[in-house]
Structures are given as C-alpha cells and as structure tokens.
From TrEMBL:
Record GO terms (molecular function): aminopeptidase activity
Protein family membership: Belongs to the peptidase S58 family.
Full protein name: Uncharacterized protein
Originating species: Saccharothrix espanaensis (strain ATCC 51144 / DSM 44229 / JCM 9112 / NBRC 15066 / NRRL 15764)
InterPro entries per UniProt: ArgJ-like_dom_sf (IPR016117), Peptidase_S58_DmpA (IPR005321)
Signal sequence interval, chain numbering: none
Length: 168
C-alpha cells in the first residue's frame, strides 16, 4: 500500500493519481525515485516480464505494473531494468534524493490503507522542511502490510524524523 504528498511543482512524476484513496488500484508494484524519468520504463518492463501488475486479462502475462515515480534530474538513460536486476531486500526506513527537485520514500512496517499512507507521506514531508529543503518535492510512504501495533501518530512522527535525518 502506498500514499504520496506533493508540494511545489515537481516534474517527472508518474501515476501519482493512482495513490488517491478513491481510485480502484489498491496496491503498487514498485515506487521509483530516479535521476531521470526514463528509468521508470525499465522498472515497468522488468515487472511485466515477471507477471507482476494489476490484472487486465485472464492470462498471467496480462498485467499492468503500477509504478508511481518521481524524477529529480534529467538523465535520459533507462537504468531501471538493471536496478531491478541488482536489487535485494529492502529494510524499512527513509531515502531522500535531491536534484533539481526532491524525492523521498518512507517504508513503514504497518498495515495501512492508502489514506493512512498519505498521512504518513504528508508528515514525512515535514522532515524535508526541518532539514532546510524548500524545493518542489514528492514524498512517498509505503506500508509493508506487517502489523506491528504502532499507532498512526507514532508512524507519522518517526517518518518526519527519518526524512529529516536522510535529508541532512
């Protein structure tokens, strides 16, 4: 499950509207923070080749991967496919990427819906302000679905702290 908070006018974003709680899509298959918008295509291709995505037909290969993304630079190279090939397990925490805009990702161990993920993303965005980053920014929050009993309020506070630390 994922949510997003966007402030300013970042460019190079993709599929952010699908994270709105009113949309049909309930899960994302990846979130990409890239140095350029081209990398998203490689991630989508990697997922589709492995049949990960929103089902649009009966056959296993009839899927559309849901991959919200934010770019922070203008690199025209597609590095997404090779990044997926090299990826390993992800530890929950925060990642902040700064370029011409800012993109951040917070991963929390929690069982949240899209609205709660958006609330975590909004709080995490405050961490950028605490760190003195006042650029247009896109902040994603992803919940792993692992219930820990941590309150939403506590998740929001920790997310803001983690992003502030990652941005410094």
């Amino acid at each position: 499950m994922a949510g997003v908070d966007v402030r300013g006018a970042p460019w190079g974003t993709r599929e952010l509207d699908l994270l709105d709680p009113s949309t049909l899509v309930q899960r994302v298959h990846a979130v990409v923070l890239a140095d350029g918008p081209a990398s998203v295509g490689g991630v989508v291709r990697w997922l589709a080749e492995r049949h990960f995505g929103f089902p649009v037909g009966r056959a296993p290969h009839e899927v559309v991967p849901i991959v919200p993304a934010a770019a922070v630079g203008r690199n025209p190279d597609d590095l997404g496919f090779s990044a997926c090939e090299a990826a390993g397990p992800v530890e929950p925490g925060a990642l902040v990427v700064v370029g011409e805009t800012v993109a951040a990702l917070v991963v929390v161990d929690a069982e949240l819906d899209k609205a709660a993920c958006r609330r975590v993303a909004m709080s995490a965005h405050d961490g950028l302000v605490r760190a003195g980053l006042h650029l247009p920014a896109t902040v994603f929050a992803v919940a792993t679905g692992v219930p820990t009993g941590t309150s939403l309020n506590d998740l929001c506070a920790v997310a803001a702290d983690q992003v502030a630390e990652g941005a410094r």
